[in-house]
Amino acid sequence: MMARLISRVGPCRYAPRSEHTHFHHLVRAIVYQQLSGKAAATIHRRFIELFDTTTPSPAEVARQRLPRLRSAGLSRQKASYIKDLARRVHTGDVPLDHMETLSDQDVIAALTRVKGIGVWSAQMFLMFRLGRPDVLPTLDLGIRKGVQRAYGLRSMPSPKKVEQIGAPWSPWATIASWYLWRSLDGPAA
To answer: Strand, coil or helix: what is 47?
Structure first.
């Protein structure tokens, strides 16, 4: 099934994002949660404009008061998530400078200590920031839909079923995931 999907989608263009810092990447992820790209981009730009640099440090963000962060258009909840992230990174509770040395499970455990960062967000960080090759985000709706379509399933598979179907993709589950997402971009096969 995956061979047919790969043939249909074409060459893999997956690449982790290396611009800016891990902290900046996570702040951006929080800002973009449940918003359209255009609205999120505007809020993110306004957030960055609150500082004298395009990559504010965790300490700089942690010092900001919530009303100032909210003035960029952040909800009270997202502003508190970003402050929690900044505080935890600044104190060393979340060791962003050493994420590359941690196992996937340890990265997930560290990131999910932050309010507003769940397993899915941590998996996206593993895939698209750290470039980890063997991540299968079984909770992701796009992955589940992609598996349903690729395998001709009548109903959307459970996360456990996705895990079973995806077991043979290891150690390249990240690439398989990329193909599943891309398979949803075009017409049904």
So the answer is: helix
Which pTM value belongs to this model?
Answer: 0.89
Q: What are the pLDDT tens digits along the chain (189 aa)?
A: 888 989 999 999 999 999 899 999 999 999 988 888 899 999 999 999 999 988 899 999 999 999 999 999 999 999 999 999 999 999 999 999 999 999 999 999 999 999 999 999 999 999 999 999 999 999 999 999 999 999 999 999 999 999 999 999 999 999 999 999 999 986 544
Full set of structural domains in the chain with CATH: 22-128 (1.10.340.30), 136-183 (1.10.1670.40)
